[in-house]
Amino acid sequence: MRVIAGEFRSRRLKSLPGPHLRPTPDRLRETLFDILAPRIEGVTFLDAYAGTGAVGIEALSRGAREAIFIERSRAAADVIRGNLQSLGIETRAQVFCAKALVVLERQKADIVFLDPPYDVAAEYAAALGLLGAAPPPLTIVQHEVRLDLREEYSRLRRTRTVRQGDNVLSFYGEA
Questions:
Q1: How many whole angstroms separate alpha carbon 116 and alpha carbon 141?
Q2: Which of 31, 100, 135, 163 could be bridged to 174 by S-S, CB 3.0 to 4.6 A?
């Protein structure tokens, strides 16, 4: 896995072996950040269910001021910290090793990226419902094609979807 573009372009990122992590494919990350390009500079980017941290690190590489990573697995959170340290950007990031729903309630960000495990469908609705109470300017959800997310979650309304293979990015803004 590597950083696609920006300050850390082509730098390799460490990952954990095994089926427990499902990293966002390079092509999908590239599509996501092509869409975000006009609004990524200087933002606080929150990467929930962060895995290796590749999405949040890509945001930092492309100009985000700060990134917040939430990852329940201690081993994965350690990988994120190691990736940040190898790039020399640990001071621009916070890594929380906790359940995403607990930390989402307390952290504010300009852009929130949600990528829960595909086999925990209830987590999508819970996270979007929580964010819908006090919406960030932009929430993006990566999910599988078969998962049917609602158009609205409280004050969040879906504004765009982008499908790539079996993956979908759903974009939500304040209704």
A1: 9
A2: 135
Residues in the chain: 175
CA angle 30, 70, 91 (to 5 degrees): 80
Cβ atoms of 64 and 40 within 8 Å: the answer is yes
Spans of all domains in the chain:
26-164
Exposure string over 27-52, b if 16+ CB within 10 A, otherwise e: ebbebbbeebeeebeebbbbbbbbbb
| C-alpha to C-alpha distances, 103 to 31, 65, 148, 162, nearest whole angstrom | 27, 20, 25, 27
Domain 26-164 coded CATH 3.40.50.150:
yes
pLDDT digits (tens, 9 = 90+) for 119-175: 888 999 999 999 999 999 999 999 999 999 999 999 999 999 999 999 999 999 998
